[in-house]
């Protein structure tokens, strides 16, 4: 089961580095039937194509747990570590589709895009204020650019041949 979301534009305009740009995408959801005590349907969100999902609700960072048929991404793990180190409560558990409609912030993460805020889910438009998303995005970007020596062990430096 798929439903539409819209990502914020993301990328770099610099000539030395071109970022990836996203304008629309699809999250993957799966239908789960629970039988106890009364049968009902639940739609759990797992991930986007090649990207992990995070929601922020009441100051907590929530992401589907690894038992929810998701990719155990390196960027996902990095976000969880950074969230905890920044004092943001992090929770790994099943995420119901309905939670996307009440989330304070939603973002996706992956190797190429790093952290991409979600602007809307179906007809629900999220707030333009995304302090936790922005904090994590800036922290991860600083690490990727080698600007935070605490995380140098996360990087593999490659010397480029001189022209």
Shape: globular
Count the DSSP helices: 3
Whole-number mean pLDDT:
78
Helix share bin: 10-25%
Task: Report the order of strands and helices.
Answer: EEEEEHEEHEEEH
User: What is the number of E strands?
Assistant: 10
Structural class designation: alpha+beta
- Gyration radius over CA: 17 Å
Which regions are unreliable across 5 or more consecutive residues at pLDDT < 50?
A: 6-26, 28-40
Strand order of the largest sheet: 1-2-3-4-8-9
Distance between the termini: 50 Å
As a percent range, the share of strand residues is 25-35%
User: Biggest sheet, in brief?
Assistant: 6 strands, antiparallel, barrel
Task: Please outline the helices and strands.
Blueprint: E1 2-7, E2 25-34, E3 40-48, E4 51-57, E5 60-63, H1 74-85, E6 90-92, E7 95-96, H2 97-100, E8 105-110, E9 114-121, E10 124-125, H3 131-144
Give an overview in words.
Helix content is 18%, strand content 35%. With 163 residues, the chain is an alpha+beta fold.
Structural features:
alpha+beta; six-stranded antiparallel beta barrel; 163 residues; globular
């Amino acid at each position: 089961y798929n439903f539409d979301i819209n990502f914020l534009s993301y990328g770099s305009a610099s000539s030395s580095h071109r970022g990836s740009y996203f304008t629309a995408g699809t999250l993957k959801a799966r239908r789960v039937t629970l039988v106890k005590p009364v049968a009902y349907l639940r739609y759990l969100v797992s991930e986007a194509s090649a990207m992990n999902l995070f929601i922020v609700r009441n100051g907590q960072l929530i992401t589907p747990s690894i038992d929810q048929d998701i990719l155990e991404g390196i960027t996902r793990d990095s976000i969880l570590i950074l969230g905890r180190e920044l004092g943001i409560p992090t929770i790994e558990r099943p995420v119901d589709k309905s939670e996307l409609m009440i989330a304070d912030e939603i973002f996706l993460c992956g190797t190429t895009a790093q952290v991409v805020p979600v602007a809307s889910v179906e007809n629900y438009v999220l707030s333009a204020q995304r302090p936790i998303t922005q904090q994590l995005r800036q922290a991860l970007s600083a690490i990727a650019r080698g600007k935070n020596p605490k995380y140098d062990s996360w990087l593999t430096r490659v010397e480029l041949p001189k022209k």
